[in-house]
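hey
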């Protein structure tokens, strides 16, 4: 059985290596760890992108979801 070359880094050492560089999930450019953490925090706290609906439309959607749930439990109702 042949041994790996001496310049080959063992997998155990690679698993404990601390990653000090990162890439942006938006455009792939290299970032430092601090910049990466800041970007991830900004993305998680981002603005609410749900569209604002009228209360009547939200209630109608709620009723449709409720109807679907009832129909899955009692398929013979609401025909």
């Amino acid at each position: 059985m042949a041994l790996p070359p001496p310049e080959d880094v063992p997998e155990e050492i690679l698993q404990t290596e601390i990653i000090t560089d990162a890439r942006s999930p938006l455009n792939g450019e290299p970032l430092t760890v601090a910049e990466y953490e800041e970007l991830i925090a900004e993305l998680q706290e981002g603005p609410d992108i749900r569209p604002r609906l009228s209360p009547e439309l939200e209630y109608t959607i709620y009723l449709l979801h409720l109807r679907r749930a009832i129909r899955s439990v009692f398929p013979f109702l609401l025909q």
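The mean pLDDT is 84. The helical segments are 11-16, 33-44, 55-73.
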